[in-house]
Amino acid sequence: MKLSKKGEYALRALIDLGIAAEVGRSLVQVTELAANEQLPIKFLEQILQLLKEAGLVASQRGKFGGYRLARPAGRIAVGQVVRLIDGPLAPIGCVSHTAYAKCSCPDETHCGLRMLMLDVRNAISGILDRHSLADVVEVTLRKMRRDGVPLPYTRPVRDPHGPVERRKRGRASPASHRLRPVEGLINNLLGDYAI
Length: 195
What we know:
Helices cover 45% and strands 4% of the residues. The chain has seven helices and two strands. It has helices at 5-22, 30-37, 41-53, 78-86, 112-130, 133-146, 185-190, and strands at residues 57-60, 66-69. It has a two-stranded antiparallel ribbon.
């Protein structure tokens, strides 16, 4: 399974809407979402429409309109979003639970490749279905606060000694973009663990 750009952008937009809700913003304009995540606005609008049709986001029209999550972030499984945008999680059709397709193998029951790909599908599904958007938002906010990064979607901070300062989302240097093996979501939620 490879997450498409559309799937990545959908998840990033949903995470941002979850963050906005956590910091007290009821609506976020599409232009602000696109600017914050550096996404193409027209493509993001198409993705948000798809998420709206699926009941994951709601919109409000007008000058002060925008988007928000249509239900609590804890009730949106990451796997649900990936399936909506990119289709089944299974690497081959004969192991898919949602879009089964007979493969060309003459003996599906005893096919070693099918057994291996079923394990891959179950591992991916197990992680993506176990974690909600709320889990990702929680870890994101925790790490931002820990690192002193200003939170997106907060109001500008007034400095009593100067003009209004706009808060910007911190961007790490390219060398620090790589995650160490222990920096995944599960480790950030649970700390050190053994499988």
